[in-house]
Amino acid sequence: MSSQFPWAHATHPDWRMSASLCLAQIERASRVGAGAGATLGFLYLTDHHAAEAADILAFLRERTGVTHWTGAIGVGIAAGTAEYIDEPAIALMLADFAPDDFQVFSGATPPPERLARTPDGRRAAWTALVHADAATPDLADLVHDMRGKLAGATVFGGVSSSRHPQTTIADSVLSGGLSGVVLSENVAVASRVSQSCQPIGPVHRVTESAGRRLNRLDGVPALDVLLRDMGAPDMLQRRATPAGAPTMPAAVQMLQGTFVGMGSGDAFMHGDYQVRPLIGVDPHERALALGSDLDEADHVVFCRRDRAAAQADLIRACTSLREQIESEHGGMERVRGALYISCLGRTGTLFGGPSAEMQLVQQQLGDLPLIGLYANGEIFKDRLYWYAGVLAVFL
What we know:
Blueprint: E1 7-11, H1 15-30, E2 40-46, H2 53-64, E3 68-74, E4 76-79, E5 82-85, E6 89-95, E7 102-105, E8 127-132, H3 139-148, E9 154-159, E10 168-170, E11 173-174, E12 178-183, E13 189-194, E14 198-199, E15 204-210, E16 213-217, E17 220-221, H4 222-229, H5 235-238, H6 248-255, E18 258-263, E19 274-282, E20 287-290, E21 299-304, H7 307-329, E22 337-343, H8 356-365, E23 370-375, E24 378-380, E25 383-385, E26 389-394
Parallel strand pairs: 2-3, 8-9, 22-23
Antiparallel strand pairs: 1-6, 2-6, 3-10, 4-5, 4-23, 7-12, 8-12, 9-24, 10-11, 13-26, 14-21, 15-16, 15-21, 16-17, 16-20, 18-19, 18-21, 19-20, 22-26, 24-25
């Protein structure tokens, strides 16, 4: 195989036609038989093909000779500068990792032990691409536990957005739980997360909260802090009701596009925090209601989610990734392939129109093999994200 992973994508109502078109692209890219030298296939399907997923997998395995496959099924998938949303489509990429440097896992096949070593002495469970079924109970806890099974620090992936019971691929088509592939220390991976938001103020310490209710920040009522960060600290006085709270129209307008980034420690320095929607206010207690529990988060930052913020944050993530690759790996020409898991909620107009998000990624990183999934939740490190984009590059 060439230094870059051969990859392909196609859309057609007949899965045989799509799969055949993909294999023809692979053969042209590699200038040899489809799958020659490949040991692992990455495969993403839209759920228009979910019922035929097992047939597609068998067809690709037979035609390429590649035994091991990992991937997921969703409402949308991505490839290159294109996105395929709610239409029949296939995207695949073939890698030539050494057989001892990866292991496909699922509920039936456990990953390597955390302290396992490859024959050359490197750590066998270093990174992992993880796909999950959204119907799995305690999914966030399972993702956290998966990180603990690795000797390295990187977990990346996403939650299937399939409307069909078939949701993930790990050497077979599966439903439920986690699956994916564990990679050894010999496989270099660089990854970043983009939140599609930008902070509108400083990071604040949580001083009083309960479940999804955020009462006080830095010792001040949370609503007051939000208004100050939004540049409207006098809104309570200027547009107050007799109870001393903003009018309902003002509060609704204030909430539109406002999110809360939650985390602890120095997570905010690296953009590594979870973003949840702000869903309401308690005007009398001047408290805020969030879209999920705060859990162990002890700091928050208020964010705006709009086109400019989404584009700026994705550029930030790509720039940071590119700088790491140039400083640690000798430049972008060392990139062999990439996976991009983005939230299904980021499609449409958030980035300016169809495929705008994928086009922005390739503008920032160059023309590289790139496929991915539009997910129902994104996985990065030991957390489950919403509204995020997770980019992983193989070097």
